[in-house]
Amino acid sequence: MRRIDVALRNLRRRKGRAALLVLGLALGTGTVVALMAITATMQHDIGLKLDQYGANVLVVPRSSNLALSYGGLTVAATAYDVSELSNADVERIWAIKNAASLNAVAPKLLGAARLREQTVLLAGVLFDQELKLKPWWTVEQGRMPAAPGEALAGSRLAEATGLSVGSSAEVLGETVRVVGILADNGSQDDDILFVDLAVAQRLLERPRAVSLVEVAALCNACPIEQIVEEIGQAVPQAQVTALRQAVTLRMETVRQLERFALAVSLVVVVIGGLVVLTTMLGAITERRQEIGLFRALGFRRQHVFQVVLSEVALISLVGGFLGWLLGMAAATGLTPRIAGVTAPVSWDPVLALVGIGGALVLGLGAGLYPALQATRLDPTIALRSL
């Protein structure tokens, strides 16, 4: 008789105990799988949302002057050795090796302009890139500009100059039409008149010039330092700075989720291992006569060891598979309700291998000591109790 047949027969004879072990392993595996799936989905969703929330790399012209500011007060100074950026530099940024990790590249041309007898800040932007960079922008009145002659006014600027949707205003000798008013967001955007970049370059008589470039990199998994280095190589006349505080916050949020899932998983693994250990020890005690009979029939110590571990392995595989199904079903149903994440849970085959393989390793590890105890039973003592 093969040892695997002995193991299967023992499991059929003790269906209740086998079902208890399968249930324990399934619940443990399901909990770990559900946590891993929910955490991965939350990481992906939070990473995408954080990556789209503003710039984390700033590209400005390199200059030799020192900053003369303190406590938010800037003292006027003359800059020298300034290399101006251009549209070509923006194209070079899009061409770097890690361009796939760039969510938005938003160039800006800034300049002063007279508007209704007031000096205002004029900003030329690419509106499609600006919206990716600033998803919090809300147009309080009107709509976003869609044509070169259209403008978007900040809330405080509109109030100070009397602009409204549909107003026409002369800026640097050219008439633009305000088609939208930004809602107050408490930033410097409230004081700016936004026009198309090409229009600003023409009005300010700085063809193809760019004052600065804000870059939003997908930093959930991107090599931010490498991206900064590549942009610096592509645009050598620019100073490229990573806003480390934003990047650190994003990465720390993701790491906290990972640590939480790991801590809970370790607790569940310990509990599952104890369930298997105590149940198998009880089973070995109850089967002393049976093991003694096997030894009397010629079973060696290693044969008994293999039979016990075969039982544990079969139970672990079944429990791991059921746990994986249970965990993925729980993650699919609970993620939108508990985590408020709309992204779908991915049924990753790697997670199935981790769940089933982890249950097998856990079961075999917890069943090792009971199997060794079974091999140490004295067959003569076991047979006396028959």
List its traits:
alpha+beta; 386 residues; 19% strand; 14 strands; single chain
Secondary structure blueprint with pairings:
Elements: H1 3-13, H2 15-51, E1 57-61, E2 69-70, E3 73-74, E4 85-86, H3 87-94, E5 102-115, E6 118-125, H4 127-133, E7 139-142, E8 150-153, H5 155-161, E9 168-171, E10 174-182, E11 192-196, H6 197-203, E12 209-210, E13 212-217, H7 224-234, E14 238-242, H8 244-286, H9 288-296, H10 301-339, H11 349-375, H12 379-384
Helix pairs in contact: 1-10, 2-8, 2-10, 2-11, 8-11, 10-11
What does this structure look like?
It is a single chain. The chain has twelve helices and 14 strands. The chain is α+β, with helices and mostly antiparallel strands and about 375 residues long. The chain is elongated and about 110 Å long. The two termini are about 25 Å apart.
Helix content: 40-55%
**Helical/strand content category:** alpha+beta
Largest sheet: 10 strands, mixed
Low-confidence stretches are: 66-82
Please summarize what this structure is.
With 386 residues, the protein is α+β, with helices and mostly antiparallel strands.
